[in-house]
Fold:
Amino acid sequence: MDSVRLSIVLATDTYETIRPVLSALRRQACAREIEPIIVLLGGDVSTVRLEDLSAFPHAKVVGSVNYLSEARAAGIRAASAPIVFIGETHTYPEPGWAEALLTAFNSPWAAVVPAIGNANPKRAASWASYLFDYGTWGPNRHSGEIADPLIYNTAYRREVLLSLGDSLPAALDPSEESLWPLLMSRGHRAAFASDARILHLNVGTFRTLIREKFCVGVVLGTHRSARWSLLHRLLYFVASPLIPIVLFGRVLQGSRHWPSDRLPTSAILGVLIAAIAKTAGEIIGYAGVKLPATAARLQDIEVRKVHYAGGVG
Structure:
């Protein structure tokens, strides 16, 4: 049997949701050396038929609680490869991705971020969403060490993540904003691999984009409020009219990593709208307003992104 070189953690609601991801993995030259770790949110592993995973002799199915960061932590702990990629239900590796990613680990990086492209480029809202979230890590960025690694859609040395112990699930929660400050404080470094390419599916309508970014803002603001002092929250509240401008400028700077002639003009306006929606959500969070359903809505969009994307292409 082939040895396991790369584990891929896929937290999902059902097997059907990640079927296209697994199809993309089958096209990797080293597919039999890839170990998909399918983590079922809610723990119902009966929805997966192991015979559908015959292309991956090392595949595993894990049950977990209905919360993404906990599910991904469970997948990392179940992995057996030295390199673990934290995937998503809506990111599709391109041919050659796995080999290029593994080659990058010949250097002593703790993590490697692949080049991320847009899986549904025919929609302006998708471009706005893509630029807002992933434009900085686009295919035109040069390979090498980076100071701004991602949490998800990133490969890690498994031992680095396991060293976090019981704090791993919290570190994997992006609203905690703790993973990379913690890893870098321990001397770990990250790199970008432009020849390891993956496509990310994004929301397909501006209405869903606004809803998604508003929910992101509420969850982020709520988590920050639990950690920040009253003075810190007040300062952000007062500065809130400037936050969309800062976010907009940051996204435009990062968008240089994608050819500008492919970007719809309305996508730039969409980025500004997304920045305003996220800021509005943050303000609500800083103000201490409780919207308990927001986190569940955000996770539904995240896990079932294909239902909000309007198709690939």
User: Anything to note?
Assistant: The chain has two domains: 6-200, 206-309. The first strand starts at residue 6 and ends at 12.
